[in-house]
Predict the structure.
Amino acid sequence: QFIVDELRRYAPNLPCEFDESGNAYNILDLQEFVPEAPESLSEFESPPSPISSYDSQPLNDGDFSKPPPELPSQLRTKILDEQSLFVRNPRSSRKPSHTLLNHLYKKDGCDGQSVALCSTHRFLQKYVTVVLYKSVHR
């Protein structure tokens, strides 16, 4: 069930159930597990590192003067800045990058009066992206 413009909505083309009051709720069947990873991860496991490769040298001032590491390129994606795929093609089947899944993205509005939150999750072979816009009242 979705709330759009303060009205309860559901997708009639998807499986749904009705409660005693007649409200419709879409059903997500999560019983079938479709793994995203390969069947066997053993081929990706690295051999254990030797104990001699570890040390316990104390940190010095030089360690604290280094700049922080660069942001990985996968995390530079600005999902909230992209034009909506739904606007361009409602039936778009572009698979989102695995780096976008199960993360919460936040973007402040230009005027400082609003905020957008975005999250993408996977249900079986479907991907659901939810974007919430909220005005900031202080």
Observations:
- Residues 61-65 form the longest helix (5 residues).
